[in-house]
Amino acid sequence: MSAQNLLTLEGVHTHIGAYHILHGVDLNVPANQLTMLLGRNGAGKTTTLRTIMGLWHASQGRVTLAGRDITAAHTPDISRSGVAYVPENMGIFADLSVKENMLLAARGARSIDDIDTKRLEWIFDLFPAMKKFWNHPAGKLSGGQKQMLAVSRAIVEPRQLLLIDEPSKGLAPAIIQNMIAAFKALKEAQTTILLVEQNFNFARQLGDSVAVMDDGRVVHSGRMAELAEDETLQARLLGLSLKAHQ
């Protein structure tokens, strides 16, 4: 692993039952940057996140986090290593309040008083709705507020790495802008993020580096700014033009 990469995947294959989903994924996630993982539906992006998190295990290849081989590690061990995963379905507990959801995510806290007050205030600055609806059932929140809660849970404690699957999906434009501002603040706090996204304009505004997947492989990697400026490359890799997504 090169010094600047927090996470590295080398030749990773993943099978789910009889299905061979990942076909030798090579991926580098630089420390303290936001890496976008892009690709058409079914390209293997979510499977890549789930393999990193240990929810599915690689059948071949290696996953390395901060120099440690986590290929065969179990999900709780990976989580304790400082990795948080926000799945596409958000993974919140609908019957619990926002506060209770946050407390469950703070592994070392037995009560809300055990959570670092400054960190909570920082989260409230990122997502004011979390403070407003602190005692409300999470299931009563809007789609955008649920996504804010899912990200808030992931960052309630300092993490080495955030894995986030399509945070802008189904959100109104104003909420997307709020989410972009929050991720920019996380970047400024030197948080390493691997983010799957379909919204190319969202990706363009946030990504430092980018990897594009197709058919279970990474077929392009580089700087996000370079992909954003190259419409021919966008069309070839993703079947889109940035102009159509502004």
UniProtKB/TrEMBL annotation:
What GO MF terms are annotated? ATP binding
Q: Which ranges of the sequence are coiled-coil? A: none
Q: Does the keyword Secreted apply?
A: no
- Domain ABC transporter positions: 7-240
Keywords, A to Z, come to: Amino-acid transport, ATP-binding, Cell membrane, Membrane, Nucleotide-binding, Transport
Q: Where are the transmembrane segments?
A: none
- SUPFAM superfamilies, per database record: P-loop containing nucleoside triphosphate hydrolases (SSF52540)
Family per record: Belongs to the ABC transporter superfamily.
Protein name as catalogued = ABC transporter ATP-binding protein
